[in-house]
């Protein structure tokens, strides 16, 4: 049933997935908890592949938040703005055609995170997508996949950031399991490293906390492994890169270039953790390969890596220099038509993720698909007459239509509100945080009260996004009414707009000639009021007679 319904999914390929032929230069910026990183690449559409031509990094410590409020500090915000201005200037000096940027854990959790992103747009002129932990994990997977040959072996990827750690089980076909846990090098240093050097008591507390936080995702990850599979363990980002650099300098006297593929054992990491725990900050600074900023947080980051490897019973881990930023590049290439064959399955990650969430919450897919079909049909038919939304908004409407009844999983009472929560906090991949907010709100307003300014978080959104929610959710209300009995009584709809009298004529075609569709018509008469108010039209519905099939 799912395959047949894919025809009603908004076809992003028509507008953005056409195979590209022109080479371009792309800059990807990752606004993390500890640092801001930028990578600039040249994309060759023929292969297709990208070549890294420059990297930029600055430690801004967004994770050093206000202790009482949890807000990003003014100093960290100013440091970040200054760094982003330099990144933009550098990208332009390299003649970058496009700049994409994402923000992760620290911005995601801060009460003033959205204000920070708005300030970036005003001061720097860069739009930043706020992504969820699961979306961050997915893009890390894409980045690693672009730099490693997985062959037929499953890989466990461990990415330790400043605010969170992503643990991923994946193969060359797909990511089987994605997780994001709030144990990061900056966060843990703030919470547990209270003395210099750390006390034995605090060190024990740090280890115990990390073990407790990682236990659940690692236990769940194991359930996705097939009997007999022996996954390869891969590490990405700053902590493991620093450990490998130190080890290489001590063993070889030099740092291999590239570091990609360098292996380090659990025993070697354990020895370094013990060593770091006994040293002061100044002593760690004297270690060759250790930067001043990394010396502050290396102990906590190393503990996370050691405990994860111990729980996974992994003796060695391989470094991959590609991670989130490179994953952003691959994701951009996928959505802009530069990758047509290899990794093509990833272009459908949104749709597959929506269906996965629908299945998780026992959504009646037959009904949901009919509702989505009606919603998209009406969207198309009134486009240019009553609204000017495009393909992107249509895709959000589709996702909201499929998931609008997911809240029934909790209870029938106020299930539209439950739907909002489940969608907003579900594991929908491929969407930014603001897109998740929009989908959740469109689904939330498919029944009962229309959107109001007193409703939070709807009231906190910009005017244009509130308008989108109001208009798309009113379309969804009409669509829900047309399948009131959830039996497919209405086969299709045709609409005609009369601008002179401001009337929208809906011609409804029943599936069965003898069915008067009384309940659907009654519910439509009830649901259309919000649509009429929003679009300033009168909706006139007519049930068309159909010829009896002999």
UniProtKB/TrEMBL annotation:
SUPFAM superfamilies named among the record's database cross-references: Actin-like ATPase domain, HD-domain/PDEase-like
Domain called Ppx/GppA phosphatase N-terminal: residue spans: 39-336
Keyword field contains Hydrolase: yes
Domain Ppx/GppA phosphatase C-terminal per the UniProt entry, residue ranges: 349-527
A GO molecular-function annotation: pyrophosphatase activity
Protein biosynthesis found in the keyword field: no
UniProt cross-references to CDD domains, sorted A to Z: ASKHA_NBD_PPX_GppA
Keywords per UniProt: Hydrolase
Alphabetical list of InterPro entries matching this protein: ATPase_NBD (IPR043129), GppA/Ppx_hydrolase (IPR050273), Ppx_GppA_C (IPR048950), Ppx_GppA_N (IPR003695), PyroPPase_GppA_Ppx (IPR030673)
PANTHER family named in the record: EXOPOLYPHOSPHATASE, RETROGRADE REGULATION PROTEIN 2
Protein family per UniProt: Belongs to the GppA/Ppx family.
Protein name stated in the entry: Ppx/GppA phosphatase
Source species of the chain: Gloeothece citriformis (strain PCC 7424) (Cyanothece sp. (strain PCC 7424))
């Amino acid at each position: 049933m799912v395959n047949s319904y894919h025809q009603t999914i908004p076809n992003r390929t028509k507008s953005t997935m056409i195979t590209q032929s022109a080479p371009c230069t792309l800059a990807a910026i990752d606004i993390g908890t500890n640092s801001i990183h930028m990578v600039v690449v040249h994309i060759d559409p023929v292969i297709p592949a990208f070549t890294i031509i420059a990297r930029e990094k600055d430690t801004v410590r967004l994770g050093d938040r206000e202790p009482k409020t949890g807000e990003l500090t003014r100093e960290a915000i100013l440091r970040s703005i200054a760094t982003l201005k330099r990144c933009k200037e550098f990208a332009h000096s390299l003649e970058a055609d496009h700049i994409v940027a994402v923000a992760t854990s620290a911005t995601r959790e801060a009460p003033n995170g959205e204000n920070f992103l708005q300030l970036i747009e005003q001061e720097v002129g860069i739009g930043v997508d706020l992504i969820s932990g699961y979306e961050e994990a997915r893009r890390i997977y894409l980045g690693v996949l672009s730099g490693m040959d997985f062959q037929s072996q499953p890989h466990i990827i461990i990415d330790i950031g400043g605010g969170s750690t992503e643990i991923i089980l994946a193969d060359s076909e797909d990511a089987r399991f994605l997780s994001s846990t709030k144990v990061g090098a900056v966060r843990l240093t703030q919470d547990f490293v209270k003395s210099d050097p750390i006390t034995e008591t605090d060190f024990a507390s740090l280890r115990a906390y990390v073990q407790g936080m990682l236990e659940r995702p690692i236990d769940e990850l194991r359930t996705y492994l097939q009997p007999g599979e022996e996954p390869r363990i891969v590490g990405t980002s700053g902590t493991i890169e620093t450990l490998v650099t130190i080890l290489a300098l001590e063993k070889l006297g030099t740092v291999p270039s590239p570091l990609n593929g360098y292996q380090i054992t659990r025993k070697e990491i354990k020895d370094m953790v013990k060593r770091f725990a006994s040293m002061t900050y100044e002593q760690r600074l004297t270690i060759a390969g250790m930067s001043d900023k990394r010396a502050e947080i290396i102990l906590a980051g190393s503990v996370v890596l050691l405990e994860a490897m111990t729980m996974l019973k992994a003796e060695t881990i391989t470094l991959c220099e590609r991670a989130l930023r490179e994953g952003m590049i691959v994701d951009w290439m996928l959505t802009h038509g530069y990758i047509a064959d290899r990794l093509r399955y990833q272009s459908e990650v949104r749709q597959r993720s929506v269906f996965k969430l629908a299945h998780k919450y026992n959504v009646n897919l037959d009904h949901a698909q009919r509702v989505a079909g009606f919603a998209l049909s009406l969207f198309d038919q009134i486009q240019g007459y009553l609204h000017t939304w495009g393909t992107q908004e249509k895709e959000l409407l589709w996702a909201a239509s499929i998931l609008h009844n997911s809240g029934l999983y909790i209870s029938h009472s106020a299930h539209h509100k439950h739907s909002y929560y489940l969608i907003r906090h579900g594991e929908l991949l491929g969407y930014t945080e603001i897109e998740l907010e929009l989908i959740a709100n469109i689904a939330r307003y498919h029944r009962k009260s229309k959107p109001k300014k007193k409703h939070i978080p709807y009231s906190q959104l910009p005017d244009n996004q509130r308008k989108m929610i109001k208009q798309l959710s009113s379309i969804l209300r009409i669509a829900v009414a047309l399948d009131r009995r959830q039996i497919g009584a209405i086969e299709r709809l045709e609409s005609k707009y009369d601008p002179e009298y401001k009337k929208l004529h809906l011609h409804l075609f029943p599936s069965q000639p003898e069915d008067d569709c009384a309940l659907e018509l009654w519910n439509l008469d009830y649901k259309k009021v919000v649509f009429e108010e929003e679009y300033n039209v009168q909706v006139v519905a007519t049930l068309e007679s159909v010829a009896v099939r002999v």
